C-alpha cells in the first residue's frame, strides 16, 4: 500500500518509519528542506531509541523515502496521514489548527482517485468535519474519506507503542475507509492489537480524554505526596497500595515535579477550551492544569527550603532537564520552571542532561552546562535530581558528596532510598517521604 505522511516531526516520523517497517511503501513529507536532506542522509532530527536504525534499514530496503514534494507523493498515495503539529494557540490556549488546515488544502489539490485522508495529529472534536469541508471546497471532485486515527505514543518508547499498541482507534464516517485502514494495520493482527472502529468525533475525543485522565492521575498522586509529607506517610507505599487495585492500576502513580512534554500540557488545556466552547466545563481538568502549573514552581521552593531558605549566591546543580528520560524533548519540562525559580532567588545553576542540552541552551539563560553528573556536583551547594535518566540511578554517592561544597541532595523522582543517602552523609529530601522509611522506623522501634 502506498502511504504519504505529511509532517516529519515526532509523530509523523515514527508513524512513517513504523508503517514502512510493516512493509508499506511510505513517503514522509516536510517543508523543511534541511530536515529532509538530513533524513535522506540517515540523520534523525529527534532522539528516540531505535528510530535511527529503523530509518536506515527501511531506506535501504526501498520502503521509505523523504521529500518536500507533497503534490507528487499525495497524488500516488492510497492513504495520506496528516501528522503536523497542533500547539497551543498563543493567547487563548486553543489547539492551533492552522497547520492541519493548510495541509488539507494542499492535499485537496493533489489527490487523484479514491484516497483516505487520516488525521494523525491531536485535534479537537469536529476537526475532521472541517478537513472534509476544506477538501470538498478546494476540490469538489475529490473522492476522499476523512478518518481520525489518534496516536498514543510515549516519547522514549514510541516504536514499541506503535508496534505493540494497547489499542488502535479509528474514527470513520465513510464505510469505504474501514477496509483501507484495516489493511494499513493488518501486520498488527499477529499481536492481536484491538482495533476500535468508531465515528470520527468520538475518535477525536478519545485522545483528549485519555491524556487528560492520565494527567489527572499524575496530579492526584502529587497531591497525595504533599499530604504524605504533612502526615509522615510514604507516597510510594500509598501508590503501591492503591495501584494493586485492578480498577486503578499502578501506572502514572509516581510522584514528582509535575507533568510536561509535548502532549499533556497542550491537550489538557485544549480540552478545557473545548468544554468551555460547548458549554460543558471540564472542572476536574481545569483544576489539574492549575495544580500542575503551581507544582512546577513549588519545586524550586522545595529546593530552597532544603538549602536552609536561602540560595542567593549559591551553586545549585541540576541533573536532568528533559520532561522525561529517553527523549530530548524540553517542551513544558518541569526543569524550566524549577531553574527559573532558583535563579529568581539568586542561585547560580549548573546542569547536565544526557540528551536535552542542545534544546535547553535555546530555552535557558545564565545556566552553565556540564558534561557529566559529577561535574554538576563540583562545588555545588545542592544537587537536584529532576529527570530520572538511568545513568542517574546508580551514581557513585561517595564521589558525588566529596565533590560538593554542601552535601544537600533533593530527589524529585524518589530514585534513591532515604537511609542509603543518609548513610553516605547527605542531607536528603525527596517527594512524599520522610527521612526514614516506615520499614526502618518499625525496625528501630523493635530494637
Question: Which helices and strands, and how do they pair?
Answer:
Blueprint: E1 2-6, H1 10-21, E2 25-29, H2 33-40, H3 51-60, E3 64-67, H4 70-75, E4 79-82, H5 98-110, E5 115-119, H6 127-138, E6 144-148, H7 158-163, E7 168-172, H8 176-184, E8 195-198, H9 200-231, H10 235-243, H11 264-277, H12 283-306, E9 315-319, H13 334-344, E10 348-352, H14 357-363, E11 367-369, H15 373-377, E12 382-385, H16 397-403, E13 408-411, H17 418-423, E14 427-429, H18 438-446
Parallel strand pairs: 1-2, 1-4, 2-3, 4-5, 5-6, 7-8, 9-10, 9-12, 10-11, 12-13, 13-14
Antiparallel strand pairs: 6-7
Structural Rg: 24 Å
Number of helices: 18
Provide the spatial order of strands within the biggest beta sheet. Answer: 3-2-1-4-5-6-7-8
Instruction: Give the terminus-to-terminus CA distance.
Output: 71 Å
Biggest β-sheet, characterized?
Answer: 8 strands, mixed
Global mean pLDDT: 94
The CATH topology of the largest domain turns out to be Rossmann fold
* Helix percentage range: 40-55%
Count the domains: 2
Roughly what fraction of the amino acids lie in strands?
Answer: 5-15%
Q: Outline the low-pLDDT stretches.
A: 438-447
Inertia-based shape: elongated
Q: What's the CATH H-level superfamily name of the largest domain?
A: NAD(P)-binding Rossmann-like Domain
Helices and strands: which structural class? alpha/beta
CATH class of the largest domain: Alpha Beta
The CATH architecture of the largest domain would be 3-Layer(aba) Sandwich
Q: Let me know the number of strands.
A: 14
Amino acid at each position: 500500500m502506498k502511504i504519504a505522511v505529511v509532517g516529519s516531526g515526532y509523530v509523523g516520523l515514527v508513524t512513517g518509519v513504523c508503517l514502512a517497517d510493516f512493509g508499506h511503501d511510505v513517503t514522509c513529507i516536510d517543508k523543511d528542506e534541511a530536515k529532509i536532506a538530513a533524513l535522506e542522509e540517515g540523520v534523525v532530527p529527534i532522539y528516540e531509541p531505535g528510530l535511527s536504525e529503523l530509518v536506515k534499514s527501511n531506506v535501504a530496503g526501498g520502503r521509505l523515502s523523504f521529500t518536500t514534494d507533497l503534490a507528487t507523493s499525495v497524488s500516488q498515495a492510497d492513504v495520506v496521514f496528516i501528522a503536523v503539529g497542533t500547539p497551543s494557540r498563543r493567547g487563548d490556549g486553543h489547539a492551533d489548527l492552522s497547520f492541519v488546515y493548510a495541509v488539507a488544502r494542499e492535499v485537496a489539490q493533489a489527490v487523484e482517485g479514491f484516497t483516505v485522508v487520516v488525521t494523525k495529529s491531536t485535534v479537537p472534536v469536529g476537526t475532521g468535519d472541517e478537513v472534509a469541508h476544506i477538501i470538498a471546497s478546494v476540490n469538489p471532485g475529490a473522492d476522499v474519506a476523512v478518518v481520525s486515527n489518534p496516536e498514543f505514543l510515549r516519547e522514549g518508547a514510541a516504536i514499541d507503542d506503535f508496534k505493540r499498541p494497547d489499542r488502535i482507534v479509528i474514527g470513520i464516517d465513510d464505510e469505504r475507509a474501514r477496509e483501507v485502514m484495516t489493511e494499513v494495520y493488518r501486520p498488527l493482527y499477529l499481536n492481536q492489537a484491538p482495533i476500535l472502529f468508531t465515528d470520527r468525533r468520538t475518535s477525536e475525543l478519545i485522545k483528549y480524554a485519555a491524556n487528560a485522565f492520565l494527567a489527572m492521575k499524575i496530579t492526584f498522586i502529587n497531591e497525595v505526596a504533599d499530604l504524605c509529607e504533612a502526615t509522615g506517610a510514604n507516597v510510594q507505599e500509598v501508590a503501591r497500595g492503591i495501584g494493586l487495585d485492578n480498577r486503578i492500576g499502578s501506572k502514572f502513580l509516581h510522584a514528582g515535579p509535575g507533568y510536561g512534554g509535548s502532549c499533556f500540557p497542550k491537550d489538557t488545556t485544549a480540552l478545557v477550551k473545548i468544554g468551555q466552547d460547548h458549554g460543558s466545563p471540564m472542572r476536574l481538568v481545569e483544576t489539574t492544569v492549575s495544580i500542575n502549573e503551581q507544582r512546577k514552581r513549588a519545586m524550586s521552593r522545595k529546593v530552597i527550603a532544603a538549602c536552609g531558605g536561602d540560595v542567593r549566591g549559591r551553586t545549585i546543580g541540576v541533573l536532568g532537564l528533559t520532561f522525561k528520560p529517553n527523549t530530548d524533548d524540553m517542551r513544558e519540562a518541569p526543569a524550566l520552571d524549577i531553574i527559573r525559580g532558583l535563579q529568581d532567588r539568586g542561585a547560580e545553576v549548573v546542569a547536565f542532561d544526557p540528551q536535552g542540552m542542545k534544546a535547553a541552551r535555546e530555552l535557558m539563560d545564565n545556566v552553565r552546562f556540564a558534561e557529566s553528573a559529577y561535574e554538576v556536583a563540583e562545588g555545588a551547594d545542592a544537587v537536584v535530581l529532576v529527570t530520572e535518566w538511568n545513568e542517574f540511578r546508580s551514581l557513585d554517592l561517595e564521589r558525588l558528596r566529596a565533590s560538593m561544597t554542601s552535601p544537600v541532595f533533593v530527589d524529585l523522582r524518589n530514585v534513591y532510598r532515604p537511609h542509603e543517602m543518609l548513610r553516605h552523609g547527605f542531607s536528603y529530601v525527596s517527594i512524599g517521604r520522610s527521612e526514614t522509611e516506615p520499614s526502618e522506623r518499625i525496625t528501630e522501634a523493635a530494637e
